[in-house]
């Protein structure tokens, strides 16, 4: 008999039965709770409560136009007060402001304080010192006079310090009286009465100790070159251009969209992307471990990576910004992009910035028009706000011509005229519009009739290179061009087909000295045609189903363009090498800071 079948033991005759074990207070309480729960459940079953009626969604009461106007007024008043904050007051006066005052012959009655870095310092045998001070606010320096007679007894030690310890590159602060300068070509000078050194410089180790250094040398010290006159001019112009870009689009109702830097899509389909991975650990780099591999294959297992798939740095924000265009109508993105192209030319970078507007309910003509307006607006703002910088760079480029490489000299020669002259001509000239087919015929005619030679023969169907683009706008037509209607096979899958079936509604803007600066197109808004384009060009649909959704759900004609920010800066600064118009240039084998 099994244990389960055994009967409980019963006391034998004559034996005293064992007393039952009493339950603890906790056990009794648990039984009581269980009993009450059963009774409550039984009572609920006997008397079920009716289910409450489903609540209807309620809307917030709609504001009347009068109420909305009053709220608008209240918000505007509050915003005006909030934006008028003046808690911050700089402890110094910017040199640009001082020079502007001097131009107006308005000199402060009281002493002022100026701070900055010493560009040059020379001493005379009479105990005089002449400091050229620059704080980055202006292309021009402020001349500051170190003279014993201007210092009080209390500040005599400052005089000794400034005269004996200041060197090129020193960061100093100076207090004194701003007066009109008696020297020819100078607006004003600061007669120093007190001052000191924030940070001194060891001249034996300072990379910028010499007055004039080649641009090639300055590229080796990108963290310090901002203190030179030419690069600081470029930086101020870059700042003005960035401000102009936002101003242009914001005034026209465009919304600024931040598109992702990490992407799973190669927008251009060129395969020149930087891959992003967490699998390349220190142990893998040192050879102690291998990359994760797919079983029975030599492929890297991206499923084990951070995102579970292959991810790259973006080459363009266009596809992503189109999604917001489909809800906000007119948008733009302005941010960094990356391309792993093994190029060492003066026009290419591995990391650069792109401006990419998109317009819903728009055609190729619309984007050609706004692109021309855009270029002229940005250049116009530079002409208005960066006059001293442009004048300095104009003279600088003439001085350093002999230091340039052959390629850079060719760029400088092709630009022709002075920098200010070129920019003035650009903003006052209508861009000429010609179809791609006519552009090719012009190039062929120049070869046949004028004996012009190109490395790549101009034939219909080629993707025009820099030599063709620059010949057209610099020599053939001598003005900016808008070239339209390119062959389908040389353009991207998202561009709208023309009725001829051979070309797409695309445009490139070519400018003298640069070549192609802007590329854009009408986007294919028909789902079936877009899918056919993707099939023809071998673009996988799986990773772009979200992009195709824009055509599935509420599509419409739309268009956009892209502009390389640094290409535009080459135009407005006149610099010959793109590595000199971005703070920290990245190109093959160069990524130090």
Q: List the uncertain runs.
A: 1-8
Please count the helical segments: 17
Termini separation comes to: 86 Å
Instruction: Report Rg.
Output: 36 Å
Number of strands: 16
Work out the helicity level.
Answer: 25-40%
Measured by DSSP, the beta-strand proportion falls in 15-25%
Note the main sheet: 8 strands, mixed
Please list the strands of the largest sheet in the order they lie side by side. 6-10-11-16-15-14-13-12
Q: Report mean pLDDT, rounded to a whole number.
A: 91
Key phrases:
593 residues, alpha+beta, 8-stranded mixed beta sheet, globular
Can you describe this structure?
The relative contact order is 0.08. The strands form three sheets. The chain has an eight-stranded mixed β-sheet, sandwiched between helices. By secondary structure, it is of the alpha+beta class. α13 crosses α14. The chain is 35% helix and 18% strand. The N terminus is likely disordered. It is built from 17 helices and 16 strands.
């Amino acid at each position: 008999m099994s244990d389960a079948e055994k009967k409980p033991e019963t006391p034998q005759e004559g034996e005293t039965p064992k007393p039952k074990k009493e339950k603890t207070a906790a056990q009794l309480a648990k039984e009581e709770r269980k009993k009450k729960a059963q009774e409550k459940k039984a009572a609920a079953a006997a008397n079920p409560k009716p289910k409450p009626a489903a609540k209807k969604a309620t809307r917030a009461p709609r504001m009347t136009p009068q109420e909305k106007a009053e709220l608008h007024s209240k918000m505007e008043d509050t915003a005006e007060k909030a934006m008028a904050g003046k808690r911050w007051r700089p402890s110094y006066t910017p040199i640009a402001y001082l020079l502007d005052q001097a131009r107006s012959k308005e000199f402060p009655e009281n002493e002022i304080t100026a701070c900055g870095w010493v560009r040059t310092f020379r001493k005379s045998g009479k105990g005089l010192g002449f400091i050229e001070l620059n704080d980055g606010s202006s292309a021009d320096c402020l001349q500051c006079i170190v003279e014993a007679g201007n210092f009080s007894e209390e500040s005599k030690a400052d005089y000794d310090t400034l005269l004996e310890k200041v060197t090129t590159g020193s960061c100093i602060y100076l207090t004194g009286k701003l007066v009109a300068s008696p020297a020819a070509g100078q607006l004003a000078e600061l007669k120093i009465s007190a001052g000191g050194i924030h940070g001194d410089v060891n001249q034996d180790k300072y990379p910028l100790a010499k007055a004039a250094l080649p641009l090639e040398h300055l590229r080796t010290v990108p963290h310090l070159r901002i203190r030179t006159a030419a690069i600081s001019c470029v930086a101020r112009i870059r700042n003005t251009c960035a401000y102009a870009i936002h101003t242009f689009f914001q005034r026209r109702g465009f919304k600024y969209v931040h598109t992702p830097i990490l992407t799973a899509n190669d927008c251009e389909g060129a395969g020149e992307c930087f891959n992003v991975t967490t699998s390349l650990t220190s142990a893998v780099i040192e050879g102690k471990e291998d990359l994760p591999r797919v079983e029975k294959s030599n492929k890297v297992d991206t499923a084990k990576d951070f995102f579970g798939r292959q991810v790259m740095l973006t080459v363009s924000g266009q596809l992503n910004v189109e999604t917001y265009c489909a809800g906000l109508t007119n948008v733009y993105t302005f941010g960094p992009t990356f391309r792993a192209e093994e190029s060492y030319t003066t026009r290419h970078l591995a990391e650069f910035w792109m401006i990419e507007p998109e317009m819903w309910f728009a055609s190729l003509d619309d984007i050609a028009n706004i692109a021309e307006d855009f270029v002229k607006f940005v250049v116009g703002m530079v002409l208005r706000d960066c006059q001293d910088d442009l004048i300095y760079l104009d003279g600088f480029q003439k001085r350093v011509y002999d230091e340039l490489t052959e390629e850079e000299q060719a760029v400088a020669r092709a630009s022709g005229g002075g920098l200010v002259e070129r920019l003035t001509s650009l903003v006052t000239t209508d861009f000429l519009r010609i179809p791609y087919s006519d552009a090719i015929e012009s190039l062929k005619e120049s070869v046949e009739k004028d004996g012009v030679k190109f490395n790549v023969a101009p034939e219909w169907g080629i993707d025009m290179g820099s030599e063709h683009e620059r010949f057209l706008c610099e020599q053939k037509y001598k003005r900016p061009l808008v070239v339209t209607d390119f062959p389908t096979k040389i353009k991207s899958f998202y561009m709208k087909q023309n009725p001829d079936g051979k070309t797409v509604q695309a445009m490139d803007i070519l400018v003298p000295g640069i070549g192609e600066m802007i590329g854009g197109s009408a986007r294919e808004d028909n789902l079936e045609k877009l899918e056919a384009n993707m099939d023809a060009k071998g673009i996988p649909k799986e990773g772009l189903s979200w992009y195709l959704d824009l055509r599935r759900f509420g599509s419409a004609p739309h268009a956009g363009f892209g502009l390389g920010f640094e290409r535009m800066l080459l135009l407005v600064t006149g610099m010959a090498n793109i590595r000199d118009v971005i703070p920290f240039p990245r190109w093959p084998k160069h990524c130090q800071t």
